[in-house]
Amino acid sequence: MKPAPFSYERPRDLDAALSMLAASGSSAKIIAGGQSLGPMLNLRLVQPELIVDISGLAELKRAEVSDGELVIGALVTHADIEDGRTTDVTRGAMRAVAANIAYRAVRNRGTIGGSLSHADPAADWISALAALGARVALRSLAGARMMAIEAFVLGALESALQTGEIVEAIHVPPRAASAHWGYAKSCRKTGEFAHAIGAVLIDPVAASARVVIGAIDTTPIVVTDAAELFGGRIAADYKQRFDIGVANGLLAKAGIDDAAQRHIHVSVLKRAVLEAAA
Ligand SMILES: Cc1cc2nc3c(=O)[nH]c(=O)nc-3n(C[C@H](O)[C@H](O)[C@H](O)COP(=O)(O)OP(=O)(O)OC[C@H]3O[C@@H](n4cnc5c(N)ncnc54)[C@H](O)[C@@H]3O)c2cc1C
């Protein structure tokens, strides 16, 4: 199929883009890398009157360290991160996640901001960035606001973005030298969307852990203080203390009724824990 007819604008800067979005209201759609929006247009799942192409906005392509955090523009591509063209404050975590998104052709065009905005529960950045404790910076003509990734993703293909608002950047805190990282996913075929994701950031020295169970059809389960998954405390022996019963309970509480599905998610999360401890 081909898209329904639409008007097309390519603003010269961010202010112009925001003005276009404000003037057009909900009849406009942003396009960045087009890797998710393109198929949706072709299938006529979305039929905007106006497409605002932000792919030329230099302001959104920057990545820099500011106040110790990596501020990564919405238009930075998965390939930019994979190839190390952005500073890596996560000591390899983000590079490894980027390298395993889809295929290289998708990574060349797909953007980190587009991935978050699309809010596909199976997408990698939603789970990985939530585990890393990242925040998302939003901008509209009304001003700027910032929120944690887990507050930004409201459901399947549903985010906190309001009409006229754009994802401007993602703020990623540095990963402490003592913090262990594990990321695992299960895909039917290499390069396909995951049907289970486990992401863990565990710091036995600081006795803290963030754990995410992703690709569960709705918002990922984000446990910001995950001691309960490790017998009540985070210590050097966390690998032995990982409690699959607690993980299973979290999934049941999130409405995953199918025991086989819960088993897959728990197994993938366990892989992430083992990877962190390796
Ligand atoms: C074959 C295939 C396999 C894939 N596999 C994976 C995978 O394994 N893991 C994974 O994570 N992803 C996967 N993807 C998705 C890919 O990562 C996309 O890059 C990503 O989902 C969307 O990024 P984009 O820049 O292409 O956004 P677009 O397609 O341009 O836009 C997506 C949505 O976000 C909105 N949007 C875009 N940018 C902004 C912004 N800055 N502010 C506000 N709204 C914005 C658009 O309006 C649209 O609604 C796959 C895609 C394909 C085609």
Report a brief summary of the structure.
The protein has helices at residues 14-24, 37-42, 78-82, 93-99, 104-109, 112-118, 124-131, 149-152, 238-241, 244-253, 259-277, and strands spanning 7-9, 28-31, 50-53, 63-66, 69-73, 135-140, 143-148, 153-155, 158-159, 166-172, 180-186, 196-203, 208-214, 221-223. With 278 residues, the chain is an alpha+beta fold.
Describe the structure.
The protein has three domains: 7-53, Uridine Diphospho-n-acetylenolpyruvylglucosamine Reductase, domain 2 (2-Layer Sandwich); 58-172, Uridine Diphospho-n-acetylenolpyruvylglucosamine Reductase, domain 3, CATH 3.30.465; 180-277, Enolase-like, domain 1 (2-Layer Sandwich). The protein contains eleven helices and 14 strands. With 278 residues, the chain is an alpha+beta fold. Helix 10 (244-253) crosses helix 11 (259-277). The strands form four sheets. It has a five-stranded antiparallel β-sheet with strand order 4-5-10-6-7. The chain has a four-stranded antiparallel β-sheet with strand order 11-12-13-14. Flavin-adenine dinucleotide binds at residues 29-37, 74, 101-102, 106, 109-111, 113-115, 117-118, 123-125, 161, 166-167, 193. Residues 1-177 form the FAD-binding PCMH-type domain. It holds the Pfam family FAD_binding_5.
